[in-house]
Amino acid sequence: MALTLPPHPDPLAGRIHRDGLLHDLSYAFGGPFHYLLPERFDANLAAFRAALAEAGVEGRVYYAKKANKAAVFAERCAGTGAGVDVASHGELREALGHGVRGEDLVVTGPAKADRLLRTAALQGSLIAVDSPDELERVLELDAPRPVRVLLRRHPPAQPRSRFGLDGEQLDAALLRCAAAGDRLRMEGFSFHLSGYEVRPRADLAGELVDLCRRARALGLRADRISIGGGFAVDYTAAGHWAAFLAEQGPGHYHADRSFTPGDFYPYHSPVAGADALRAVLAARPGGAGATLAERLREAGVALLLEPGRALLDRAGSSVFRVQGVKDRAGYGIVTVDGTSLSLSEQWFNSEYLPDPALLPAEPAVGESPAGPTGPPTADDGPYRACVGGASCLDSDLLSWRKIAFPRRPRIGDLLVYPNTAGYQMDSNESPFHDLPLPPKVVLHGRGGRLRWRLDQRPAV
């Protein structure tokens, strides 16, 4: 029996699929590519800002740049005054190169390189200090202005996390910051939690508000907290996701591969994106008393957040051309012109599950881009197939699952994997076999037609 996971309907994606442009781009590039929809990024950013405004909370949204390397999203941040979360000197340089001001950057990550700390300090960026020794290295910087820092809290609810300062280290760090005088501007605290649950975020955020009060008693500024990312994206309907989890098993995958359901991304989330932020703000830390929004307002503490995937929801997809199809007992193997390195869930020993769209190769007379309209052929009808990459590795599969295609794919057809902008299309990319990295195409729909340009990153 076929196992499906259809994505939410997307009228804009449907228009793009019918336009014929994707076939032209596939021909022009001679290989796989990704298309990006920056207006979707703008809409997601506006939704997060609206959630803050509705709650009456002062706040700032920082785009977690690691979610996608494309320049266009940093450009949108620069144009809209949004911040950018960076974790390497390269990411910092890229953000600056696309117009983001240094003071609009927050620098995260563990054990930051000296070069990164020095540049961040010179640019006036906000540095999330992850350890006692990193705080000492910050204090040793020869900066022309006070270095802006947050102290990153180790999450008590996730004791195995390797990030942040525990309670005793925080106490010592606060005293060290207070003694640093004008060398340092301690602006507050931060954390990042794994997973997507609302209550743990609200609970720890409430603790950070209390920490701000303690820090102020020492003469520190401490007027903001960052709750990081972890705002889920809802890819599919609840019923589809429940049915998938209930039915999936080794027989649905090539080579009878077995996946642990708990290792899948939660492709359905009842509270996602900006609505998840609303839920965090409306929650009562510790389960009682004032809401988080009320506590933030009362304490005069601003809320910073660093979504990545959630800002990229429906902001891009990945396109591959079918290069070959072979039949096996009961299913087929489709080979495309790229590799699984462009769908990074494989990096996590998992699977990117939303069903790809099959776009027929250049329609003949009497056909539409949606598919053949003539008499049925032997290829018509449902056809289950996994999707392999164009490499010599037996494990290079974009989809281990035997996807239920409406018909047997043909050479020249396109497979479009939907909604891959967040962490999928380039997190694990590699020019294996000397295959070029898939280019990124920025699409705009204006005046009833689609226009495109290549994404432009500054030369290194």
What is the count of helical runs?
A: 12
Measure the end-to-end span: 50 Å
Total E-strand runs: 17
- Reading the helices and strands in chain order gives HHEHEHEHEHEHEHEHEHHHEEEEEEEEE
CATH class division of the largest domain? Alpha Beta
- Reported by name, the CATH topology of the largest domain is TIM Barrel
The largest sheet is: 9 strands, mixed
CATH architectural category of the largest domain = Alpha-Beta Barrel
Shape: elongated
- Secondary structure: helix percent: 25-40%
Based on secondary structure, the structural category is alpha/beta
Low-confidence stretches: 369-377
Question: How is this structure best summarized?
Answer:
Helix 3 packs parallel to helix 11, helix 9 (198-217) packs across helix 11 (273-282) and helix 9 packs parallel to helix 12. This protein has 460 residues and is an alpha/beta fold. The longest helix is centred in the middle third of the chain and has 20 residues, at 198-217.
Task: Spell out the blueprint of helices and strands.
Elements: H1 11-19, H2 21-29, E1 33-36, H3 38-54, E2 59-64, H4 71-80, E3 83-86, H5 89-97, E4 105-107, H6 114-123, E5 126-129, H7 132-139, E6 147-152, H8 167-179, E7 184-190, H9 198-217, E8 224-226, H10 238-247, H11 273-282, H12 292-299, E9 302-305, E10 316-328, E11 331-336, E12 357-359, E13 380-388, E14 397-407, E15 414-417, E16 440-446, E17 449-454
Parallel strand pairs: 1-16, 2-3, 2-9, 3-4, 4-5, 5-6, 6-7, 7-8, 8-9, 11-13
Antiparallel strand pairs: 1-10, 10-11, 10-15, 12-15, 13-14, 16-17
